[in-house]
Amino acid sequence: MIAKRKMLVTMATGTGKTLTVVNETYRLMKSGAAPPETQRGRETYLLSSCASTSPLEAAARVRCAPQGAHLGEEQRVRQDAPVNKIKLAVARALIATMDEGRWRELALLVDDEAIVDHPRLLRSLYWQDSDYTPNVYAVLPRVLGVTTSDEDPFTPQRGEPRLTHLAVVEEFLDLGSWLAEHEPDLHHALYGDDAGRLLPDLEAHAELLDLDEARDQVRRLRRDLSEDLPAAIGQAKELVETVCKAILGLHGAGPETQVDMPELVKKVLLRLQLHPTQVNPAREGASDVRRVLQAVSHLLGATAPYRNLFGTGHGRSGGPRVDDAAGRFMVRAALDAVTFLLDVHQVWQEQFRRSRVESLSAGDRVIHLTFGEGSVVDVAGTGDSAEATITFADSTKRLMLRYAPMALVP
To answer: Which of 176, 226, 255, 296 could tie 75 with a disulfide, CB 3.0–4.6 Å?
Structure first.
């Protein structure tokens, strides 16, 4: 996920310079070394920057905002990964990659030189004897730090095993990368689908939006990603729809909420200033940004027909079966796109909560936190009593300027 976002930001800027600035600023803020001005700048993303800053850079900025973020986080075995699968994965990686020098290095790293003192391990490795594989399994409990009995240093105690050396061994073997290349099924069992790494971000956004439906959909996705791909495809489509409606303020089940997916996606992109037609053609890299946003638009819109073909939600008989690789890609891509929308939505919300327009004239274009972009029809009154009649995409509103969370469109 992080890699995808880095790629998008680099495409948007042409050089990747913005990504470097974002990462460096985040590092300084986390360390407390950034000056107060930098800290405040993190909180005051201005709407006017949209004229010269791509929406993709806006998403990069909000990605560095949460204090709990981890840019460039490495793969780690899931906490709920089956212990027997962890042991099997580590054993296979050890058998395939170790020589005597690496065995001795690993023994030092886990502080247990009894591993290389095993009477047959290194000897069977050197002579390529048939008992090398059994010997690896014999020392595996010590390698992983499983609690052992006093009687037999290579026999784990009964009960729930504790793998106290797992993090060290995982890094030493580069286990995630090795499994992804050589044992994809075990990689999936230990690390889950890449889409699973997006779920914590989505859960955090669901909490901020107070969306019970989104929380439920994320919970079902967590359950279905590894066990029921058609169900995960269906949930991904439902999540796209839920998030789009939440951003647009379409709650409940009234007729205004009955919007086809392509139209729903278009309205959301327009609301967030992410529609390809809204890219400033004068900015550097505009054509690249436009192509990326077109891809986001097509992808989000495609979740509905893809669900109809391969996912759950409609009774089908004799329909096509989903290709696992394509299905996982669709779920991953949909979740990444939804997270991108929510990232940018968070930027808008933080900015609009403090934004007020002191004066307007007929013909001005504004963007409102709830109603989106609109055109000012007329203005009445002055000062704190000033009111404006504004035509938005779906309605016309009369708003008091001192209270309306909106800003001028540059």
So the answer is: 176
Written as six digits, the tokens of 368 are 């409102």
For the chain, the structural domain boundaries read 2-73+194-350, 83-191, 365-408
CA triple 217-221-222, angle to 5 deg: 120
* Cβ neighbours for 386, distance < 8 A, ≥ 6 positions apart: 359, 360, 379, 380, 400, 401, 402
Closest among 344, 380, 348 to 361, alpha carbons compared: 380
CA dist 167 and 162 (Å) reads 12
Q: Give yes or no for residue 351 having a pLDDT over 70.
A: yes
Q: What is the average pLDDT value for the chain, to the nearest integer? A: 76
For residue 160, pLDDT beyond 80: no
Structural element, H or E, at residue 338: helix 324-352
Cα gap 61→166, rounded to integer Å: 34
Write down the pLDDT at residue 252. Answer: 65
**The tokens of 157 are what?**
């105690």
**130 in Cβ contact with 221 (< 8 Å):** no
User: Residue written as tokens 């936190």?
Assistant: 369
Compute the distance between CA of residue 80 and CA of residue 83 in angstroms, rounded to an integer: 9
Q: What is the pLDDT of residue 4?
A: 41
Q: How far apart are CA 228 and CA 320, in angstroms?
A: 16
Taking a C-beta distance cutoff of 8 angstroms, is the pair 75, 33 a contact? no
C-alpha separations of 27 from 64, 69, 72, 332 in Å = 9, 11, 12, 28
- Counting beta carbons within 10 angstroms of the beta carbon of residue 67, is it exposed (0 to 12), middle (13 to 18) or buried (19 or more)? exposed
Query: Considering just the CA atoms, what is the radius of gyration of the chain in Å?
Result: 27
> Phi and psi at residue 254, in whole multiples of 5°?
-70, 170
Gap between the Cα atoms of 313 and 300, Å rounded? 17
CA distances from 298 to 46, 115, 241, 266, 269 (A): 28, 55, 14, 10, 11
Contacts of 217 by beta carbon, 8 Å cutoff, 6+ apart: 235, 238, 239, 242
pLDDT band with cut points at 50, 70 and 90 for residue 251: low
CA–CA separation, 333 and 260 (whole Å): 20
Q: Tens of pLDDT along 285-344?
A: 899 999 999 999 999 999 999 998 888 866 666 677 888 888 888 888 888 888 889 888
Residue 254 is encoded by which pair of tokens? 């009234």
Which of 82-101 are b and which e, b meaning 16 or more Cβ less than 10 Å from the residue's Cβ?
Answer: eeeebbbbbbbbbeeebeee
Measured between alpha carbons, how far is 228 from 139 in angstroms, rounded to an integer? 36
